[in-house]
Amino acid sequence: MKKGSSRYRHYRTTALCSPVILILLLAASCLWASDPDAFEDDDTYLTAHVVDTGSSAAPALHTFHDEGDEDWVKFFGYIDDDKDDHEYIVYISDVGSRCSIVIEVYTDDGKTLLTDPFDDAVAGEETTVTFTITREGIYYIRLRNSDPAVYGDDTDYRLMVQPGTSSGKPIGTGTITGTFTDAQSEAPLNNGLIRTDIGTAALPDRGVYQMVHSAGNFILSATANGYLSFSTQVTVEAGETSTINIAMEPLPADPVDPGDPEKPSSCFIEEIYGPQSPEAAFFRHYRDTVLAATPTGRTVIKLYYTLDRQLTDACTQHFEIFPKR
Question: Which bin fits 154, alpha (ψ -120 to 50), beta or left (φ > 0)?
Answer without folding.
Answer: left
